[in-house]
Amino acid sequence: DKAGHKHFMAKEIAEQPRVIGEALSHYLKGDTITLPGDGIDFTAYDRLTFVACGTAYYACLTAKYWFETLARIPVEVDIASEFRYREPPIPARTAALFVSQSGETADTLAALRYCEGKAATILSVLNATESSMARESDVVLPIHAGPEIGVASTKAFSCQLTVLLLLALEAARQRGEIDAARMAEILPKLRALPAVFGNAIDGADQTRAVSQELAESRDVLYLGRGLMYPLALEGALKLKELSYLHAEAYASGELKHGPIALIDSHVPVVVMAPRDALFEKTVSNMQEVMARGGRVLLISDAEGIAAAGDGVWRSIEMPKVDPLLAPILYALPAQLLSYHTAIAKGTDVDQPRNLAKSVTVE
Ligand code: M6R
Question: Could you give the ipTM of this predicted complex?
């Protein structure tokens, strides 16, 4: 049932304010972050290993920034199909964390099994809680997104991010790395996020017009820095998956180490850059693109768009949020650009060619 939407993807995008709220309400009771079962003792680990595929892998990359900066715990992130065959050593006092919408992805499940008996604890962040990964984990952290039918992961991604951020905050608290004042500042902002996300959906009409133009191009580049780098990767994956356009993402700082050679007036460059501490650095990357005739599509808040000045080809304005929360909000323009571009190209949005919702073969 598409609940009046043209596609499951549109329905699932629209559901995000509600399901993010759902995830929050399961983990956030008053000022306390509560974890399922006996909880997780983050002081018992010296490092974390995150493993997943596709969009879930990008959720892990985002979470690495959160865990390392907030909780000061080293995090290794890997693609399941690489991790499992490398047979990496797993030092004692490592928690292994697997992220999966379906809980059945063959490579992620094999990576989880590889960690059994090696990692101190096996954690999984799952949407399907009746799944193989759920049965084989020590602690299951449900994301509460509800069934996701569209092949492209949308609400599962934003709910994965929400739960991972809560985990990182709880890890930071347990390890004494976050002060009470910062916690008291961030939790209400997190609680307000569903409403902010809802407003962003209402104001997101700009993405439709610009997607018509993206649909005309052959290649699209996505750039992001820090927390926005995994979002750039996710934006490029979504665009490829749904519209069959060639899209690549780079960390903004890597531009001049090769990909800048691709820039000309035919290649739109999507820059995801809220006005945060790294914004000025990204502006200089944008200028390098514009100086070579590149067309910059800037996704930022009003302040960022004003600061970027003229010369930007198109911009999409997002509400201003605490930079820590920006990845959850910026999932939305990544999704909408790919959705509208796919419609402009006439591709099958809910069932893109060659893809399956759950990849249970290796
Ligand atoms: O069920 P999983 O979360 O383990 O699936 C992982 C990937 O196959 C999945 O995220 C895939 O990349 C999506 N189709 C992307 O939209």
Answer: 0.98
